Amino acid sequence: MSEEFGPDFVTVTDEDGNEFELEHLGTLEHKGNTYMAFVPADMDEDDEDFGLILLRVAEENGEQILADIDDQSELDEVYEQFVETLFDDSEEESE
């Protein structure tokens, strides 16, 4: 993601038809799968529901979709990788 063009935003629709705007923070590959990290774009950082949203890129009917990560150990591994990646990028920028 290029900082010179600003952040990327996507609108996702949940199973109940509710739409949410998310800011894309990064993408990574882990054990053959692609994962994307987001934060809510329209929510205050002080809101108790604000936080990192991790989704797996999956294929459904020939199209790429964003899917929940149902396996807790998979979610934990991906979360750790994103925290490491996002934190390391912040460290380099501040030096």
Annotation, overall tally of beta strands: 5
Could you list the spans in which at least 5 consecutive residues all have pLDDT below 50?
none
Distance between the termini: 20 Å
Structural class: alpha+beta
**Helix coverage percent:** 10-25%
Biggest sheet details: 5 strands, antiparallel
What is the mean predicted local confidence, pLDDT? 84
Number of helices: 1
Could you tell me the strand content as a percent range?
A: 35-45%
Radius of gyration: 14 Å
SSE topology string: EEEEEH
Question: Assembly state here?
Answer: single chain
Structurally, the number of domains stands at 1
Biggest sheet, spatial arrangement of strands: 1-2-3-4-5
- Which geometry do the CA atoms define? globular
Could you explain how this protein is built, in words?
It is a single chain. This protein has one helix at residues 72-94; strands spanning 8-13, 19-30, 33-40, 53-60, 63-67. The mean pLDDT is 84. The protein is built from one helix and five strands. It is globular. By secondary structure, it is an alpha+beta fold. The chain has one domain. The chain has a five-stranded antiparallel sheet.
